[in-house]
Design a protein that fits this description.
The protein has 100 residues and is an alpha+beta fold. The chain is 36% helix and 12% strand. Strand 1 and strand 2 form a beta hairpin.
Length: 100
């Protein structure tokens, strides 16, 4: 059996996770945990990544695909920096008009 950590269930069902467990799971105060039971009857504890509803769009597969494509362009140097916003807007308008 691997390394294990002991804790005690308190009166109201509360338990304290040891610092080793908190470090292994990367936990900090306020994090959410999920408890599940595997086929061997063992309890599995997983740190949840809760996404605020107003940010859920960012984590859709479609958006993440575009993020990966954009990062690939940046990594390959396929981008241009403009010193001023009006130059950026002008360049975008020219590209949009060229497509018509």
């Amino acid at each position: 059996m691997g390394e294990y950590f002991k804790t005690r269930v308190r009166l109201k069902g509360q338990v304290t996770l040891s610092s080793e467990i908190r470090n292994l799971l990367g936990l900090k105060e306020g994090d959410d945990l999920a408890f599940s039971l595997n086929e061997q009857g063992q309890v599995i504890i997983t740190r949840l990544e809760v996404i605020p509803p107003d940010q859920a769009w960012f984590w859709t597969e479609q958006w993440q695909k575009v993020e990966r494509e954009a990062q690939a362009d940046i990594d390959a140097g396929r981008f241009h920096r403009y010193p001023y916003i009006d130059e950026t807007v002008s360049a975008l308008e020219k590209r949009a008009n060229a497509g018509n």
